[in-house]
């Protein structure tokens, strides 16, 4: 069993390293360093070439910093857990190559981790008591999905987005409103000042099943922005109308999944789960039905602590990656299994 795991995450525009230390029991987070690449703000989105170069420059110092903050020497590290996908392939390659070199030279165990499984494990970093079964809503810049998680490592897809991811919709609407990148935090801040009654946007696919679609909502906001004669006056109200519509859909489907499975817990994960507003809306809607488990924002944004935690789980199963570990932009979630039977989706 690995007692000290170094996590490395470079799948998008955060360069991150973390140390998890366990003394035979549950692992504790000993350090977490996250370096956000600000360069992309100039371009209004992540520029892949710039992201991989910035990872290359920053990663050795970020890893060093994580070791120093944890008070752990490299000699004490048992295993290296690194995001192997999904993500930007050039960015992933920097982390994977660095982790392989470290593990090979130091004769340490290596484990490639799926980024989405990392997001699922984020609340478990802080909440040692979190155990399946639970329903998980994963919403990030690249993915939006509802999962039935009967046990760690076993995942049943209830539904995913047919077009845009929830975070992507936030980023695109932020651009329409003339806000910066990433859009989520800016829209959340502005929406808090907005009038909820001024703009009511469509809630695509709200009344059916577990799948999502956000492109129609985005288009509706686009039309409203074009129709506005005074965007500075309307901006906060538009942000509020958009956020309310998107969260209403997310939480309605989460509630439907909780009711259909009968599970006592619902996990929120991924970058969109940084939104305290989403956590509050979900807690209100599921009050008396299920407990909401959500990590603090810095563990929901891309970070290496969640990667180390998911890696720790996989290492505990005896899994190891070998030196052929490669970065894969479209790495599928491990342990995906078919639903035993189609899940009846009750109203709502
Ligand atoms: O998981 P993540 O950090 O990166 C990916 O793996 O994609 O997610 C980033 C996404 C961005 O689209 C960002 O706008 C969104 O998460 N996000 C938010 C909030 N904070 C970040 N969306 C809504 N409200 C927030 N407060
Ligand atoms: Zn992510």
For the structure shown, list the relevant keywords.
five-stranded mixed beta sheet, Nucleotidyltransferase, domain 5, 10 helices, binds zinc ion, 2 domains, six-stranded mixed beta sheet, alpha/beta, single chain, 348 residues, binds 5'-O-[(R)-(carboxyoxy)(hydroxy)phosphoryl]adenosine
Explain what the structure shows:
- There is one protein chain.
- The protein has 348 residues and is α/β, with parallel strands linked by helices.
- The chain has 2 domains: 4-124 and 299-316, ATPase, nucleotide binding domain (Nucleotidyltransferase, domain 5); 132-294, 2-Layer Sandwich (Nucleotidyltransferase, domain 5).
- Helix content is 41%, strand content 20%.
- It is built from 10 helices and 11 strands.
- It has helices spanning 48-70, 89-106, 115-126, 166-176, 183-191, 215-227, 231-261, 276-285, 297-300, 304-316, and strands at residues 4-9, 14-21, 28-36, 79-85, 109-114, 134-139, 144-151, 154-160, 265-269, 291-294, 336-337.
- The strands form 2 sheets. Strands 10-9-6-7-8-11 form a 6-stranded mixed beta sheet, sandwiched between helices. The chain has a 5-stranded mixed beta sheet with strand order 3-2-1-4-5, with helices on both faces.
- α4 packs across α5 (183-191).
- The chain is globular, with a radius of gyration of 20 Å.
- The termini are far apart.
- The structure holds 5'-O-[(R)-(carboxyoxy)(hydroxy)phosphoryl]adenosine (KG4) and zinc ion.
- The site of zinc ion (ZN) has 6 residues, from α3.
């Amino acid at each position: 069993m690995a007692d000290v795991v170094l996590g490395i995450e470079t799948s998008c525009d955060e360069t991150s390293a973390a140390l998890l230390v366990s003394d035979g029991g549950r692992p504790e987070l000993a350090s977490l360093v996250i370096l956000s690449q600000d360069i992309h703000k100039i371009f209004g989105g992540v520029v892949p070439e710039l992201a991989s170069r910035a990872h290359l420059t920053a990663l050795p110092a970020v890893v060093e910093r994580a070791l120093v903050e944890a008070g752990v020497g490299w000699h004490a590290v048992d295993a290296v857990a690194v995001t192997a996908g999904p993500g930007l392939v050039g960015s992933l390659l920097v982390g994977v190559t660095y982790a392989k070199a470290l593990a090979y030279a130091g004769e340490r165990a290596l484990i490639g981790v799926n980024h989405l499984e990392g997001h699922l494990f984020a609340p478990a970093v802080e909440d040692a008591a979190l155990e399946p079964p639970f329903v998980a809503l994963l919403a990030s810049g690249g993915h939006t999905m509802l999962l039935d998680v009967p046990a760690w490592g076993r995942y049943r897809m209830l539904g995913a987005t047919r077009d845009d991811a929830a975070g992507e919709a936030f980023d695109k609407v932020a651009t329409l409103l003339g806000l910066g990148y990433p859009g989520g935090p800016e829209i959340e801040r502005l929406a808090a000042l907005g009038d909820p009654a001024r703009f009511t946007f469509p809630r695509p696919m709200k009344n059916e099943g577990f799948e999502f679609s956000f492109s129609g909502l985005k288009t509706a906001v686009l039309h409203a922005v074009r129709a506005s004669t005074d965007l500075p006056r309307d901006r906060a109200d538009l942000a509020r109308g958009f956020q309310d519509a998107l969260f209403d859909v997310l939480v309605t489907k989460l509630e439907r999944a909780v009711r259909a499975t009968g599970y006592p817990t619902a996990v929120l994960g991924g970058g969109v789960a940084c939104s305290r507003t989403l956590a509050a809306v979900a807690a209100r809607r599921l009050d008396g039905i299920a407990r909401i488990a959500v990590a603090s924002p810095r563990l929901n944004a891309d970070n290496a602590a969640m990667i180390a935690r998911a890696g720790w789980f996989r290492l505990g199963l005896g899994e190891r990656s070998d030196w052929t570990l490669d970065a894969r932009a479209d790495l599928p979630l491990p342990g995906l299994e078919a639903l035993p039977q189609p899940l009846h989706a009750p109203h709502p």
